[in-house]
Please model this.
Amino acid sequence: MILVTGATGTVGREVVRRLPAGLRVRLMTRDPAKVVAPGEETQVVAADYEDPRSLECALQGVSAALVITNRVGGDDDLRLFRAAQAVGVRRLVKLSAAAVLDPDAVDLITRWQRTTEELLLASGIEWTLLRPRAFMSNTLSWAGSIRSDRVVRAQYGASANACVDPRDIAEVAVRALTEEGHAGKAYTLTGPEPITPAEQTEQLAQVLGVPLRFEELSLEQARAGLLERYPEPIAEALLGSARRQEAGAKAAVDGTMCSLTGRAALTFRDWARGNRTAFT
Ligand SMILES: NC(=O)c1ccc[n+]([C@@H]2O[C@H](COP(=O)([O-])OP(=O)(O)OC[C@H]3O[C@@H](n4cnc5c(N)ncnc54)[C@H](OP(=O)(O)O)[C@@H]3O)[C@@H](O)[C@H]2O)c1
Model:
């Protein structure tokens, strides 16, 4: 049995689509009603990281689980690892972040990811780490202003990020969950090229067939926008992360995705084509 946590989220949803037919699969969510049309053999289980007993139930009979958490600074991973130890799960595949490898990345989010990686490595459970660069899907946060004003507003328009398509992360996750040979491996996952917010705006305009303008946000504008959506420590961590991008820390392309799957990583243009309706 394979368990997918975060099954309703950006990466988890794509993993569920890609798991080979015939496998016994269980999807974890706090709200099973969110899982639309699960396959006939797919189980959906209600569990919450805050409730260790629900985690043990979700992990019962599981041989491999994909671990996706998103509450920065919380103990969600630790509770899941303990439950996995208690019921004897053999393998955990953990969604982490590429930034953990950058010694200059000392923001709250990266420190949390480093700590959770260390907890997993100390758990005694077989592990694989997925360390993606920024998700291409983060640009969905531009959809509102694209629809209303045909404008993209972001910081550091000329700074490059080798962002990755969540579908590529999912493909590697499925391999790590279902194949042998991934134990003790950490995979950095990037797209095929570094791309700047201004270039992404240009490509979105071409894919959508409408003119789009890029407006660079000042630090204060960016901070004000983030504070509308996140608590201050998270907003500051995201500003720190943006500063590292401006300094060039996120532009490197990694060939791991290509060597694991035998095909090139998907481009931002591919991602935009697959998601054009979100912007229209
Ligand atoms: N976005 C990026 O650029 C980026 C880059 C590198 C790494 N990452 C990492 O990727 C991870 C997030 O992945 P994602 O974007 O695919 O996730 P996501 O879309 O944010 O979805 C979060 C998932 O977690 C589940 N969840 C949240 N709280 C839960 C709880 N208390 N109990 C059980 N389930 C809970 C949600 O399920 P329900 O709501 O259905 O319960 C949902 O499926 C984070 O660790 C982040 O640091 C992100």
Summary: Residues 6-12, 29-31, 34, 48-50, 68-70, 95, 97, 113, 132, 134-135, 138 surround NAP (CB under 6 Å). The longest helix spans residues 232-246.
